[in-house]
Amino acid sequence: AQKVTQAQTEISVVEKEDVTLDCVYETRDTTYYLFWYKQPPSGELVFLIRRNSFDEQNEISGRYSWNFQKSTSSFNFTITASQVVDSAVYFCALSLGSSNTGKLIFGQGTTLQVKP
Amino acid sequence: DGGITQSPKYLFRKEGQNVTLSCEQNLNHDAMYWYRQDPGQGLRLIYYSQIVNDFQKGDIAEGYSVSREKKESFPLTVTSAQKNPTAFYLCASRNNRGPYEQYFGPGTRLTVT
């Protein structure tokens, strides 16, 4: 069975602190895709990143970085020097390559609060 | 501007009434999806459609119906058979030929009393 676990329900940090959001996934498929989405208070999900199962390179985009490790089935997300605008709910999601339906399996989400 | 629109943002209905949520996209995406989000929970898939005139049930399809008569449009009807319809509903779309991320609309918050 496929599953995504975000063990951290809520995280609270002070502005400029670094914060890491954990994501652990389960699948037996060899081809899959991992995603991170941000949901600000407005409600719309904003796409942040996609990672293919065959590409374990870490990625950095400004203050955001992602660490993909197949050995531990993890796809963690780090925000460096957090800002108040980073406050949101963050979702990790999994899509299987074998079905090609694009169905996303979401984790429960991590609510990040960045205090000034 | 390309994107996904959902209307209305807030919707109120009396119990026992059917209600249709609109979703339109001008991204020329092949596939469209409907998700439901309850407070403090992740998103769950209701229905999806990979091509026009075809759609499939997701994980929680009971009490919902959809149609896909046009590539741009994927309306969701919440029927009176849905036992707990109050929720936040999100529509998404993606290109079947890649890249494979889904793009989401702003959502409709449905309250049934």
Task: Write structural notes for this entry.
The complex is a heterodimer of chains A (116) and B (113). Chain A is mainly β. In chain A, the strands form three sheets. In chain A, strands 2, 5, 6, 10, 11 and 12 form a six-stranded mixed beta sheet that branches. A four-stranded antiparallel beta sheet of chain A has the order 3-9-8-7, with no helix packed on it. A two-stranded antiparallel ribbon of chain A has the order 1-4. The relative contact order of chain A is 0.34. Chain B is 0% helix and 50% strand. Chain B is globular. At the A-B interface, strand 5 and strand 6 of A face strand 5, strand 9 and strand 10 of B.
What is the assembly state of the chains in this entry? heterodimer
Tell me the fraction of residues in β-strands of chain B, as a range: over 45%
Provide the gyration radius of chain A in Å: 14 Å
- The span between the termini of chain B is 36 Å
| Elements of chain A, N to C (H/E) | EEEEEEEEEEEE
Average predicted confidence as pLDDT of chain B: 93
Q: Which of globular, elongated, flat, extended, rod-shaped describes the shape of chain B?
A: globular
* Total helical elements of chain A: 0
Give the tally of β-strands of chain B: 11
Number of strands of chain A: 12
Beta-strand portion of chain A reads over 45%
Write a brief caption for the model:
Chain A has 116 residues and is mainly β. Chain A contains no helices and twelve strands. Chain A has strands at residues 3-5, 10-14, 19-21, 24-26, 32-39, 46-52, 59-61, 64-69, 74-79, 88-96, 105-106, 110-115.
List descriptors.
heterodimer, A: 116 residues, 6-stranded mixed β-sheet, 4-stranded antiparallel β-sheet, 12 strands, B: 113 residues, mainly beta, 7-stranded mixed β-sheet, 11 strands
Layout of secondary structure:
The complex is a heterodimer of chains A (116) and B (113).
Chain A: E1 3-5, E2 10-14, E3 19-21, E4 24-26, E5 32-39, E6 46-52, E7 59-61, E8 64-69, E9 74-79, E10 88-96, E11 105-106, E12 110-115
Chain B: E1 4-7, E2 10-13, E3 19-25, E4 31-37, E5 43-51, E6 54-57, E7 64-66, E8 76-78, E9 87-94, E10 103-104, E11 108-112
Parallel strand pairs in B: 2-11
Antiparallel strand pairs in B: 1-3, 3-8, 4-5, 4-9, 5-6, 7-8, 9-10, 9-11
